[in-house]
Design goal:
- 70% of the residues lie in helices and 0% in strands.
- It has helices at 9-26, 34-41, 45-51, 55-67, 84-98, 104-117, 120-147, 157-174, 180-198.
- The chain is elongated.
Amino acid sequence: MLMGTRRRGDELETAIYQVTYQLLATNNGTALTFSQVAKAAHTSRTVLYRYWESPFDLVLATLTHYRQQDPQSMQLEHIDQGSLRADLIYVGTSFAQAATAGVSQYFRQLFSLAVDEQDQRQLAKILSLSTTANLALMQQVVENARRRHELLRTPPQATLLAMFNQIRYVTMIGGAIPGEIEITRLVDDLILPAMQQLGR
C-alpha cells in the first residue's frame, strides 16, 4: 500500500510510524531493526537514519505518536473521585491496568529491553517521557486536593512520582500487574500519608 508514490515529510513519517507499530504488535517484544522497518515501509535505511538515530529512537517516537491518539489513555477530567485518597487509588489503578493495554504495553516492553541491555541513554529517554506524563496526572490530583483544602501546597516531585515508580518496580520484579487491593494498600500505607505530610 506504500509503494508507487514518493512520500515526503509528515506523510512519510506517519507511514513509518504505522509500519513500526504494526511490527511491534507482531514481534512479541523482540527488538526491531531498521532493515525490518525499511522493508515493510518500502523505504531505505538511509531515510530512517535521517530521521532517527537508532531503532530504539524510532520505536520511542512511534509510541509517543500513538499514545497521543490512544483512546485508552486516562482523561484528566475523570480524575476527580471526591477525595485525595480516592483520586490516588483511581490514578494508580488506571495506570497499572493501562500497562497491559494499548500503546502502554509496548512502552513496558521497551523499558524492559532497555533495562536488560543496561542502556542508560535509552532508560533516560523513557523515564523522561514517563515522568512528564505522570506529573501531568498528579498535577490534577493536587489541584483537586487543594480545591477541597486537603492539601495547602504541592508536595515535592519525588513524592508525586513515588506511586508510579513503585508500580513499575512491582511490575518489573514480580511480573504481575498490581490490582486495586494492592494499589489501595500502597496509597494508604505510603502515598497518602507522604502527600498529606509534605503538602500541608
